[in-house]
Amino acid sequence: MTSASPSPDSQPDAGQDLQWMRAALAEAGRAMRHSPPNPAVGCMVVTTRGESFGGHTQPPGQGHAEVQALAALRAHGASTAGATVYVTLEPCAHFGRTPPCADALVAAGVGRVVVAVVDPNPLVAGKGIERLRAAGIRVDVGLLADEAREVNLGFFSRMVRGVPWVRMKIAASLDGQTALENGRSQWITGPSARADGHAWRARAGAVLTGIGTVLEDDPRLDVREVPTARQPLRVVLDSGLQMPGDARILQPPGTVLVYAAREEARRRAVLEAAGAELALLPGPGGKVDLHAVLKDLARRGVNELHVEAGHKLNGSLLQAGLVDEFLVYLAPKLVGQGRGMLRAGPLESLDQAVGLRYTEVSMCGDDLRIIARPPGRERF
Fold this sequence. Notes:
This protein is of the alpha/beta class. It has helices spanning 14-29, 65-75, 101-108, 127-134, 145-151, 153-160, 191-203, 211-217, 265-273, 290-299, 311-319, and strands at 42-46, 52-56, 84-87, 112-115, 138-141, 165-173, 177-179, 206-210, 233-237, 256-260, 277-280, 304-307, 325-331, 339-340, 357-364, 367-373. Helix 3 runs parallel beside helix 4 (127-134).
């Protein structure tokens, strides 16, 4: 993108810094559906003449945000000399699938780099900033750091905690029922909420459900309602290997990973013939080890894990303390008796209830969308 702006002064203009970092955050948002397992990063380059050029992370193996912004600048014949760069995550300083972005900025001769937040990846973790400063480039760190970290909470979670950020999506009636007593649940919420749910699926590294949901609802759990160039990994917890070979979740597009608690050669052959991968992670009581699942998914590069499961698995994840965020859609309907959001408890007093903090409440079509977290969950 290009636009006019006053030339940056020798003394930074705080208002302009905010303006351009917000623009960089908007660029980062455009990368969220295709950047995983890499973080979604946005960059704005503002020349000494006030021209501005933006870029964001491309799919893995392609250009990072800084490289994209510099390429856009050069395509318009603008000069990089003395430019100010606004980037939502510290420029990388190591060779991965692409060369270090810090080196590209040094070679471009930019005069100043404004970094929202330091990269938690041990391969970077301040090294990019050090490289820029060693080259005589002024580097300012911390502008809109909370907002930038929020964009990549999953990446931070994987790098710092060694597990994905776990988001549990629930669609329910106003009285908290996710299905009728007979199990029917389509459709409690309206088309806007369903499309929004698919948008959250699209940004996740993996979508997880349990075998109960597979046997009862036969879902696909792919992304269909919104455009996407990448299908998230679909994950099924199937302790007893009950997955039928013709389950819709095994059909393209995308790949499927099944976690089981025990080996069974015939069932493995059925799943592998359908194109799925089987991983054994036995835990207590003949069930899959939930903690081990999260660690394994992080090892596979999953930043955000999107859970769409039934009340039993939802309850197990909650009781294990593994849910970081709840994405709840409430329809303006009263069902009465039915199936609740999750099965946990019973509690002996309200003091034992899981406390949550609302981070967003908004309308999604005719339905109410609530995003809530256990207090302090993102502090890692």
